[in-house]
């Protein structure tokens, strides 16, 4: 990874390390986050350890890239940012981001991480477009992605079943020509 591409003023993005097991375990098993990640069951530490062990696989092989968002000032892991459903033929990928602690949200960490992964995707992965699926009620994520230049291109009505209620989900898209 090129340090200039994945390092900003507030955060930097790095590959998963074995030491991230507890953070990944905490994120993947937090039921309050399951509606954002479409997780339905808890993950064991054993399975997550295997996932981290295999996370070195090339994005072209795994079709996914998960990076840890770290605060530049103290190297603390703040969350994760993922490229998923990587499709090199059509030059697109899905994008998801999570700043784990609510006390770290709204401080610019997510915005900078999103900017870093966007630039990385366009420059190094030759991606033409990125997309994100965001629940209609997730106003902070909508604001974050719109600030980065993503546009809502569709509303999937009653798309996701959460707690017995179907919820609407926006499809956001950023096409490379829109990036300055």
Write up what this structure looks like.
This protein is α+β, with helices and mostly antiparallel strands. It has a domain at 11-134: Aminopeptidase. The protein has helices at 21-28, 34-37, 45-53, 59-62, 109-124, 139-147; strands at residues 11-15, 65-71, 77-87, 92-99, 129-135, 151-162, 165-175. The chain has a seven-stranded mixed β-sheet. A hairpin with a 4-residue loop joins strand 3 and strand 4 (92-99). The longest helix has 16 residues, at 109-124. The radius of gyration is 16 Å and the shape is globular. The chain starts with 10 loop residues before the first strand and ends in a 5-residue tail after the last strand. The mean pLDDT is 85.
Short description:
28% of the residues lie in helices and 34% in strands.
List strands and helices in order, with pairings.
Elements: E1 11-15, H1 21-28, H2 34-37, H3 45-53, H4 59-62, E2 65-71, E3 77-87, E4 92-99, H5 109-124, E5 129-135, H6 139-147, E6 151-162, E7 165-175
Parallel strand pairs: 4-5
Antiparallel strand pairs: 1-2, 2-3, 3-4, 5-7, 6-7
Helix pairs in contact: 1-3
Protein name: Diamine N-acetyltransferase
Domain N-acetyltransferase: 11-177
Pfam families: Acetyltransf_3 (PF13302)
Features:
single chain; 180 residues; alpha+beta; Aminopeptidase; 6 helices; 34% strand; globular
The tally of strands reads 7
Predict the CATH topology of the domain at 11-134. Aminopeptidase
Would you identify the CATH architecture of the domain at 11-134? 3-Layer(aba) Sandwich
Classification by helices and strands: alpha+beta
The main pleated sheet reads as: 7 strands, mixed
What is the global morphology? globular
- How many H/I helices? 6
Instruction: Report the radius of gyration as a whole number of Å.
Output: 16 Å
Helix percent reads 25-40%
Strand percentage lies at: 25-35%
CATH superfamily of the domain at 11-134: Gcn5-related N-acetyltransferase (GNAT)
Encode the helix/strand succession as letters.
Answer: EHHHHEEEHEHEE
Protein name: Diamine N-acetyltransferase
Keywords: Transferase
GO molecular function, one term: acyltransferase activity, transferring groups other than amino-acyl groups
Domain N-acetyltransferase: 11-177
